Amino acid sequence: MTRVTIAAVGSFRQAERFLIAALALALLSTAWIAAQRIPFPYQLDYGEGTVLYGAERLARGQALYPPVGDLPVALNPYGPSGFYLFALPGTWFGTQFAAPRLLVLLCGVGVACWLVLMIHQQTRDWKLSLLFGLLFLAVPLLRTGWLYFARMDLPGLLLQTAGLWMVFRWPRKWLLAVPVLVLAVTFKLSLLAAPLACIAWFALRREWPAAAGITVSIAGLLGAAYWWAQQATAGTFVQHLLYAHAGSLRPRLLGALFLPAFAAYAPLLVLGAYRLVEAWKERSVNLLDLYFLASSLLLVTAAKPGSAHNHFLGWFSALCLIAALGYSGVRRQATAAPALALIPAALAFFLVFNVDIRPLPRESRDCAEANSYLQRHPGSRILSENVGALLVSGRPVWLSDPSGYTLMVHWKDWSDRELVEKASHRFFDLIVMSETAPRMSARPHSVWPRRFLAEVERNYQPSQTFVCNNTAVFYEPRR
Question: For 163-178, what is each residue's pLDDT tens digit?
Answer without folding.
Answer: 999 999 999 999 999 9
